[in-house]
Each structure stands twice: as C-alpha cells, then as structure tokens.
Design brief:
The chain contains 1 helix and 5 strands. The protein has 90 residues and is an alpha+beta fold. The protein has 2 domains: 42 residues; 47 residues, SH3 type barrels (Roll), CATH 2.30.30.30. It has a 5-stranded antiparallel sheet, with helices on one face.
Length: 90
C-alpha cells in the first residue's frame, strides 16, 4: 500500500511531462508539416518561391520530387521540392 502511495506522484509526473512535450514539441511540428504540405501542393508554374538555401526564383517546371526554378539572371536551377520553404510575396 505504501509503495502505491509513493509511485502515484511519479506516474502523475510522467503523464504531465508527456502532455507538456506534446504541446511544446509534437503539436507545433505537425502544424509546420501541414503548412509545408499545403505550400507544396499549391505550387504552380509561375509561382515565386524561396528555397531553404535562400534562393529566390520562379517555378518553371514541376515534377514529382523536383522543381525547376528560373532565377532573376535567367538561369534555371533544379532543386528538390522539399527545399521550397516559402512563397515570395509580390
């Protein structure tokens, strides 16, 4: 009986820690993943985007896993679709 009384607060502490980790780490990460998926699904030819490396370009062509960007200089660059992190505001 005494052992149960001693472990009950410990179990409560672990449950509280899990709930805190969920709201501080897991939930925001899922929200970011959802926003990234929405961004990638809305990509169209002509969309102005920014990559994870800070490269600004206009979508020239889309494939399953890659995007061809047209840069300001006129050059084109093929990047992984996952590296597109934001839309460039006009």
């Amino acid at each position: 009986m005494e052992e149960l009384a001693q472990t009950a607060p410990l179990i409560g502490f672990f449950v509280l820690m899990f709930v805190a980790m969920y709201f501080l780490m897991i939930r925001p990460q899922r929200k970011r993943q959802k926003e990234q998926q929405e961004l990638l699904s809305e990509l169209r030819r002509g969309s102005k985007v920014i990559t994870a490396g800070g490269i600004h370009g206009q979508v020239e062509n889309l494939a399953d896993d890659t995007v061809v960007l047209k840069l300001e200089s006129g050059a084109t660059m093929k990047v992984n679709k996952a590296s597109v992190t934001a839309r460039q505001m006009k």
